[in-house]
Design brief:
heterodimer; A: about 170 residues; mainly alpha; globular; B: about 525 residues; alpha/beta; FAD/NAD(P)-binding domain; Cholesterol Oxidase, domain 2; 2 domains; eight-stranded mixed beta sheet; four-stranded antiparallel beta sheet; 15 helices; 21 strands
Chain lengths: ~170, ~525
């Protein structure tokens, strides 16, 4: 993955260095889910699987098949949304995801030393809070990307609507 | 099955010349009198006027051709299909989300129908600061009137929905005027889904008005093509080349599109047009292209009302308040226009700050949710220079828009105003779009907190639906890319005809401003081409 000159300028030296490191130092890939994906790689899949239930706490069905289905469809929605972005935006997202998958970032930010697929909800919660409160714009942008993709995937899904009493579009 | 007259389907059956470049099996080459890049408010308006003048017009559009039967009022379908970057386009540091249309009709297909004439103070400022005296309110009035008639623009006579009514009620309690917004609709069903494409063809967008008129007069429309660059020779553009995009509109295919024309019109919007000029390396001796790009940076305040609001239903924008534009100097601290937005689940959920249980609680109050937005009028003060459009290494544009202390000062005042209005209207809790969105249950507490907010990028939610500037008009080539007739100062057959023309932001939703100036420019171009024969 190549960091473009513009990204370098836009994010500043520290940010760009972190992104470069993220692209170069990626640890061993998490196991693939077995679900065919259009855009998400194994790192991205593991990351969203960890953060989506925490971001959507209180919004998703609490348990059982309904919860599993909702999470699965949210992951699919995230993948579809990323695949629909232009190549440059997809590239930026991949960089942010790779950054968050870096052990130094996980450990440094939130003491999440396990891989994403082994992190506890409490660890993920702490990680998200640190990202959101970070003084580094790039970390806040990463949080924002997770927030936007996850909430778009769930609330674009009609299954989310009964809980908020949204009746859906009117019949014509 | 189409339950309503579908002008697109009817036109295609009648033999309109429409080419979907994503399905092209060979390169496309076209000749025309005028090539127009973009089919939004600028390109659509120009297309009709030029085609009616008997000129051969080719329209290039990056997005798809859709029609009422495709508009199923579903956010998950509409945003990826009809908007730039799935309605999630970002500024360079990701701090501002930009809503821009990308489909035939451009922003007009998906906007919320608010139709304001360019405010008189804005035109007066342009006359004073930019030498644009020929665009006085009186001089422009016939152009506004012409486009108002063409697009059925009139003040909305139906009662506002509860989301807008709450804004009006709160404003009235504070002694602030909240007049009715003129809308470009005919036979509107008051559904509330304008942002996903009008399913009943009531919105008088370019998609159902000027573009069908141009196509019926023989214009050619090429969709799913991204205009890449102009080729020039001396003082003339001699060709425009572009490339086809895949069916999803995400990535280029191997197919190219080439148009040779007598004149070329840039109407790709205030990010696309400067980007096209930059890629083409057209003369820019003063380094103006893509500079001074404005957004009306917009912040929001969410409230829970005791009564049901249902902000997803009914005309999305029907009242506004200009008190905080009109009661202070235009070049003083940044002023703001107050409006209400439509509230649908996806855009609401992504725009609300915070996450987890707090976010879920706000969403559970969805039917009682009320939102006010403040659109900041940028570009009228030396401390408000706007942003710059630049090219990424792959040639696609990105807007760098720094959020400065000057802007944040306006954001803070806007948060205070919006909270005051919402509490005055009876809100039980109010949450400015900032940080954790901690809900405040009284104005006093809200005020104290807002005064202390640490406003900063990506912690305070900032959005924009109005991109303006970057290729301004004016008679001084040191300060303007094109003349007041829209013609490029260095290239004699190249025109700009969209929101890029504006030397500042408009201070109101810009569609009618774009229509009026586009009509004026296109009329002049038609006369010039006819005279040359």
């Amino acid at each position: 993955m190549i960091v473009s000159r513009r990204t370098f300028i836009a994010t500043g030296l520290v940010g760009a260095a972190a992104l470069l490191a993220a692209a170069w130092l990626r640890g061993p890939h998490a196991p693939a889910s077995g679900v065919p994906r259009r855009a998400l790689d194994a790192d991205g899949e593991a990351l969203f699987k960890a953060v989506a239930p925490v971001l959507l706490e209180g919004a998703l069905p609490e348990r059982g098949d309904a919860r599993a289905d909702a999470l699965r469809e949210t992951l699919t929605g995230i993948d579809t949304a990323i695949a629909g972005l232009p190549p440059a935006a997809q590239g930026e997202l991949r960089q942010l995801i790779a950054l968050l998958a870096l052990p130094p970032v996980r450990v440094g930010l939130a003491r999440v030393s396990d891989r994403w697929d082994e992190a506890s909800p409490e660890e993920v919660r702490r990680f998200l809070d640190r990202c959101r409160d970070s003084s580094i714009t790039l970390m806040r942008a990463a949080y924002d990307a997770l927030h936007e993709l996850t909430f778009a995937a769930w609330y674009g899904n009609p299954k989310s609507w009964p809980a908020i009493a949204y009746p859906g579009p009117p019949a014509l | 099955m189409a339950a309503f007259p579908d002008p697109i389907e009817a036109g295609l059956q009648a033999g309109w010349k429409v080419v979907d470049a994503s399905r092209a099996e060979r390169d496309i080459s076209l000749d025309a009198d005028v090539a127009i890049v973009g089919t939004g408010a600028g390109g659509g308006t120009a297309a009709e006027i030029l085609a009616r003048a008997g000129l051969a017009v080719v329209l290039l559009e990056e997005g798809p051709l859709r029609s009422s039967r495709d508009f199923r009022m579903l956010e998950a379908e509409a945003y990826p299909d009809l908007y730039q970057e799935s309605a999630a386009r970002k500024t360079a540091d990701h701090a501002i989300t930009i809503l821009q249309g990308r489909c035939v009709g451009g922003g007009t297909t998906v906007n919320w129908t608010s139709s304001f004439r360019t405010p008189t103070p804005t035109l007066a400022w342009w006359a004073r600061e930019y030498g644009l005296a020929e665009f006085s309110s009186d001089a422009m009035a016939p152009w506004f009137a012409r486009m108002e008639e063409r697009l059925s623009i009139a003040p909305w006579t139906v009662a506002p929905n509860a989301n807008n009514e709450t804004l009006a009620r709160g404003a009235a309690k504070l002694g602030i005027l909240a007049p009715t917004i003129p809308r470009n609709v005919k036979g509107c069903w008051n559904l509330g889904y304008c942002g996903m494409g009008c399913p009943v063809n009531a919105k008088q967008s370019m998609l159902v008005t000027t573009i069908p008129a141009a196509l019926s007069r023989g214009a050619t429309l090429v969709t799913r093509v991204r205009a890449d660059r102009f080729a020039t020779s001396g003082e003339d553009v001699v060709a425009l080349t572009g490339y086809a995009l895949d069916a999803a509109g995400a990535a280029p295919t191997a197919r190219t599109v080439k148009v040779r024309a007598r004149a070329y019109v840039c109407a790709a919007g205030a990010i696309g047009t400067p980007a096209l000029l930059l890629r083409s390396r057209v003369p820019d001796p003063h380094g103006i292209v893509g500079r001074r790009t404005f957004l009306h940076p917009t912040v929001l305040s969410a409230a829970i009302m005791p009564e049901v609001v249902d902000g997803f239903a009914g005309a999305p924008q029907s009242v506004y308040a200009d008190h905080f534009l009109e009661t202070q100097p235009i070049d003083g601290p940044i002023g703001y226009k107050l409006e209400a937005p439509p509230l649908h689940p996806l855009l609401t959920a992504t725009t609300l700050t915070d996450d987890g249980r707090n976010h879920a609680e706000w969403m559970r109050g969805f039917r009682n949710l009320q939102v006010v937005i403040a659109l900041l009028r940028d570009g009228f003060n030396p401390q408000s220079p706007g942003g710059s459009v630049r090219l990424r290494d792959d040639g696609t544009p990105v807007l760098d828009y720094p959020l400065t202390p000057f802007v944040w000062d306006g954001v803070r005042r806007a948060f205070l105003t919006m909270a005051e209005i919402q509490f005055a209207a009876g809100a039980t809790k109010v949450s400015p779009g900032h940080g954790y969105g901690a809900p405040f249950t009284s104005l006093a507490v809200a005020k104290a907190a807002i005064e202390r907010f640490d406003l900063r990028p990506l912690f305070t939610r900032v959005v924009s639906a109005h991109v303006m500037g970057g290729a301004p008009f004016g008679s001084d080539p040191a300060r303007a890319v094109v003349g007041t007739d829209g013609r490029h100062h260095q290239l004699r057959n190249l025109y700009v005809c969209d929101g890029s023309l504006f030397p500042t932001s408009i201070g109101a939703n810009p569609q009618l401003s774009i229509y009026a100036f586009a009509a004026r420019i296109a009329g002049g171009l038609a006369d010039r081409l006819a005279a040359r024969g």
